[in-house]
Amino acid sequence: MNAARTFATARRVLRQLAHDPRTIALLLLVPVLLLVLLYYVFDADRRSFDSIGASLLGIFPLVTMFLVTSIATLRERTSGTLERLLSMPLGKADLILGYALAFGALAVVQASAATGVAVGLLDLDIAGSPWLLLLVALLDALLGTALGLFVSAFAASEFQVVQFMPAVIFPQLLLCGLFAPRSSMQPALEAVSDVLPMSYAVDGMTEVLKHPDVTGDFVRDVAVVAGCALLVLFLGAATLRRRTA
Amino acid sequence: MNKPPPAAEPPAAEPPADPPAVHARGLTVIRGRRRVLDQLSFDVAPGTVTGLLGPSGSGKSTLIRAVVGTQAKVTGTLDVLGRPAGSAPLRSRVGYVTQSPSVYADLTARQNLDYYAAVLGIPRADRAAAVTRALTDVDLTSHADDLAGNLSGGQSSRVSLAVALLGTPELLVLDEPTVGLDPVLRRDLWNLFHRLAAHGTTLLISSHVMDEADRCEHLLLVRNGTLLAADTPQALREATGSDTVEDAFLRLVESAPTEPAEHPLRGTP
């Protein structure tokens, strides 16, 4: 682990993005536009907009960072740059943390834009601090980055890697409590939802929505999401092999 | 690196002077169920340009990947600069250029080099100068700020080569670095390789183009994962009574005892 190499990697990933303004625009605008869409979908039901909107603020960064990271690292694996980097004095942690830093920074901008529009323009009514929303969004983004990095090891092509999105993200989306309260699910499914990290991401957002103070549940949710992100990052590091067949 | 009990080496035959930059004894690589390299034994003398020649699919890339330590399932002895191939201290001492250019298509040539220079641990203050020097070496200064993805095939493989020239490695391992380059540039690069060797760098360069053989001081001829010959181009021609290394290669193939059972067909990793 070497700070200079980690920062160099983060800077390189951001420079790659800088050459791709369309991707940046999509990353920043799509969540905002979807929130606006949601606002008018729940035109007559502001309470539903509040709860679903808050949940989405946690889900957007997870999904987008998952997609961006899984494609970026798959390209790194298939283009030969990963093999070259691993033949150089670059630690696996330097590479993974570099990616996490770069996409984390991007997620801060994305989540700030989405949260700012939701709270400022769309009157999303939250009891707690918007900073806590931002914190959860950032951790969700890191979780998405970690998951994307991990699954890219199991995909041989872009076709395969985008299929991991419905495979890894959709079940969590269905079970996270967005569509139905987790306590009302069939008990087996509720148990499954208890071990999926997105459930805690959405719970954390709901805590901020309902409570003015930092609750014990919120701390637990944040800790679970952060712990999962670290665990999956660690698993992702294990998929990077210096020697391949 | 898997190391079986020290192989029975002919101790007297080794010149005692400089230790070899690459030292292989009984080097074998298995991929799938195929023996891609079978019991190779050779030395690469330091400060020389050694050509690794053979038809595509002969195992050149696998041998190169074994030397830089990215190939799995390597058995036998393989020491690079006195250490087992692939060991951590070698990572900044060995430069490696893959067959297809390994650079980021969505970065400019200069940004690519800047990143790799940081990874190689070149101090920030020296980085810009090292990058410019590497770009000059491969004659790409006029395209330094073009995206690598917009460069021609030959140009982007030169960006890839420039990466390996950063940080002045002691051993440069190049997998087909001159494929697809025009004759002038090819000559310039070979001149560069010899300049580097004159300054003490060891170069191991693979090629399937036999007419590049005479630019090397020493040759390793491989075919079907076995070593046909290891000698100077002149000695090879004389020993086989041929005019060119290509003829020498053909004579060696014809006089080889038996065809190995396996035909490793994959050339690129």
TrEMBL record, chain A:
Main location: membrane
Subcellular location: Cell membrane
Gene Ontology terms for molecular function: ABC-type transporter activity
A single Gene Ontology CC term: ATP-binding cassette (ABC) transporter complex
Signal peptide residue numbers: none
Protein name, as recorded: Transport permease protein
Family: Belongs to the ABC-2 integral membrane protein family.
Residues passing through the membrane, by range: 21-42, 54-74, 95-119, 131-154, 161-180, 222-240
KW Cell membrane (keyword) present: yes
Bilayer topology term: Multi-pass membrane protein
Keyword Coiled coil: no
Pfam families: ABC2_membrane
Domain spans labelled ABC transmembrane type-2: 18-243
GO term, biological process aspect, one: response to antibiotic
Keywords in alphabetical order: Antibiotic resistance, Cell membrane, Membrane, Transmembrane, Transmembrane helix, Transport
Automatic annotation (TrEMBL), chain B:
Positions with biased composition (Pro residues): 1-19
Annotated segments matching region Disordered: 1-22
SUPFAM superfamilies reported for this sequence: P-loop containing nucleoside triphosphate hydrolases (SSF52540)
Alphabetic keyword roster: ATP-binding, Nucleotide-binding
InterPro entries membership: AAA+_ATPase, ABC_transporter-like_ATP-bd, ABC_transporter-like_CS, P-loop_NTPase
Domain of life: Bacteria
Protein name: ABC-2 type transport system ATP-binding protein
Source organism: Streptomyces qinglanensis
